[in-house]
Design a protein that fits this description.
The structure is a homodimer of 110-residue chains. With 110 residues, chain A is an alpha+beta fold. In chain A, 55% of the residues lie in helices and 15% in strands. In chain A, helix 1 packs across helix 2 and helix 1 packs across helix 4. The longest helix of chain A has 26 residues. Chain A binds a DNA duplex (30 and 30 nucleotides) through helix 2, helix 3 and strand 3.
DNA sequence: ATACTATACCTAAAACGTTTAGGTGTGGAC
DNA sequence: GTCCACACCTAAACGTTTTAGGTATAGTAT
């Protein structure tokens, strides 16, 4: 069983990051891995996409970052979901659902 | 019952255009309307997005355009799905499904 | 007549997010 | 002592969409 990779659609990354962080605080590098795991190896988020995205959403107040260290003692910047981030996750999930529904409906058409 | 509008995600427009044309040839302006109807008024595709997209996918051979006239006699450029376009629609629908599945799976995670 | 609206096309600048590709530095394994 | 995994960051290029402009025709209302 091989995996056809799932391509990220532009605009979904924020939702995915927020979702990953909703399972607990994590540093950037770890978010990539968590997304990979959660998706059964189907999603690979590039660092060049992730770090700017984290910066973006931190500015918006959806996550807050703090320098710390991981289990093995290495320095890393940990991000956690803020209250606003939780709300935003809901918003983004709802608009995903809305689009998914629309696409499904259109697919039914003959 | 009002409609919260569904935003188009970058990268889905081609699939939507191909789907619209899979129901029969149509001119650009009509594609916008057909998408609107099919989506129960939730999707509005901008002309500035549509015409470049049509040009793009015609170059790729997924649709072919020909000048003609509509029912009321106005000139309009009609596009129809090619064989390659039908295949491409399948491809795009499959990758949409793949991503939708991944997103659903991740949403389940706790 | 003339104004307005809907139809139908097209284009260019700007905004946006992602990919690609470069870089730094640390720590552990071989 | 060299390599790989971890962990961060940035900039240029790329592709798509938004925004905002434009042309032209036909029908309807004033």
């Amino acid at each position: 069983m091989t995996n056809p990779k799932a391509d990220l659609l532009q605009g979904t990354l924020d939702m995915l990051i927020l979702k990953a962080l909703s399972l607990g605080p994590l540093h950037g590098y770890g978010i990539i891995q968590r997304l990979r795991t959660l998706s059964d190896n189907m999603l690979h988020v590039e660092q060049g996409a992730l770090y700017p995205a984290l910066y973006r959403i931190e500015l918006k107040g959806w996550v807050s970052g703090k320098w710390g260290q991981n289990e093995t003692g290495r320095r890393a910047k940990f991000y956690k979901l803020t209250k606003a981030g939780q709300r935003q996750l809901k918003v983004e999930e709802e608009s995903w659902d809305r689009l998914a529904l629309v696409v499904a409906k259109m697919r039914e058409a003959t």
